[in-house]
Amino acid sequence: MVVDDQAVGRAGFAAIVDAEPDMTVVAEAGDGATAVALAVREAPDLVLMDIRMPGMDGLTATRLITTPETGPRVLVLTTFDLDAYVYEALRAGASGFLLKDAQPEDLLSALRVVASGEGIFAPAVTRRLINTFAQGAPPPPAVTGALGQLTPREGEVLLHIASDLTNAEIAVTLGVATGTVKTHVNALLTKLGLRDRVQATILAYESGLIRPRGVPAD
In CATH, which of 3.90.180.10, 3.40.50.2300, 3.30.70.3090, 3.40.190.10 is domain 2-133? Predict the structure, then answer.
């Protein structure tokens, strides 16, 4: 589903997606409320979501249509890479974000990555975003409380995820098989009620497990 309040932009994104043999646009919406209703009716696997829209914005819509277990994955669109709305959208359940001026091939690549169950992690941009907004963000009490349920090894894996390591890199660091790392990742995401590695990284920062750059240790 493509959600954008600008009809021309919405049509452009839809045309790019529909031209691909492995993707189909099942719905289009011009505001968040319509997107929420269509998400229930059409059950899309993936939503390309604009953030700033009149009425219900993309942030609220994202929060309403995403859950850890069900609901579509969301890739949010933004004009600015350092945007508080983007940060809140990632906290709300979005799996990543893309700048509106991205090239068509980058858009399609991002959609495929998110659809496969991964989060879009552009370290240069996402890391700056987290550094900018995580410092004053209150950690979600229910989620941070669940940190105590993690095993020591799952806690290690969470820290490595937040340090931008891939599963293969984590496996080498810990001296275990990549499949074992995937099992730990899936387990910690389930225990914390998170959708993907993006949300796990944000939680690691907000809960104080990792400090944003420029924040001195206590």
Answer: 3.40.50.2300
Q: pTM for the complete prediction?
A: 0.74
Q: What is the pLDDT of residues 85-113, one digit of tens each?
A: 778 888 888 888 888 888 999 899 889 88
Can you list the alpha helix ranges (DSSP code H) found in the chain? 7-18, 32-42, 58-65, 84-92, 104-115, 123-133, 141-145, 152-162, 167-174, 178-192, 197-206
Q: Is 129 within 8 Å of 209 (Cβ atoms)?
A: no
Query: Which residues, listed in sequence order, are joined to residue 46 by a DSSP beta bridge?
Result: 73
The DSSP annotation for 111-123 comes to: HHHHHTT-----H
Question: Could you tell me if 184 and 153 are in contact, meaning their C-beta atoms sit under 8 angstroms apart?
Answer: yes
Would you say residue 74 has pLDDT above 80? yes
